[in-house]
Design goal:
Strand content: under 5%
Helix content: over 70%
Number of strands: 0
Radius of gyration: 23 Å
Distance between the termini: 50 Å
Number of helices: 6
Order of helices and strands: HHHHHH
Length: 148
Amino acid sequence: MAQPIHDRDREAVCRLHAEGKSRNAIARAIGRSAATVSKIAKAEGLTFAGGARVAAATEARRADAAARREQLADEALDGALGQVARTAAAESARDARDHATAARALTEVHARVAELARHSSNGSSGGAMLDRLADVLIGPAGGDREGV
């Protein structure tokens, strides 16, 4: 059964809308569905059409994601080269095999990220997955890279 819409919900939607929050961000903030936020916004005469602002933010996000994919590919290749060097200097056959395996895995990551980056620049999907992978491997966008 749907929860009734309270005055505090209406006030929160109006306040957060005035702060420039999106419908989905407002829904998360007040713990209601996006449909409920839309219903409140319509009753209050509010719209969520961002127009040029949304387009500019989307383009900035795409550019940032492209740069992060390039960074991830470069770091994977650098890591592979480092593993190759360690293979030559390994003290045992097992260590050499482990370094060679790591180099191969990093080379595959580089190749896949580079290929997906080429496709995502043409508008195909894969960027969101790469963003999550980059967050795990190199940290979120704009974050510090301590210890890397």
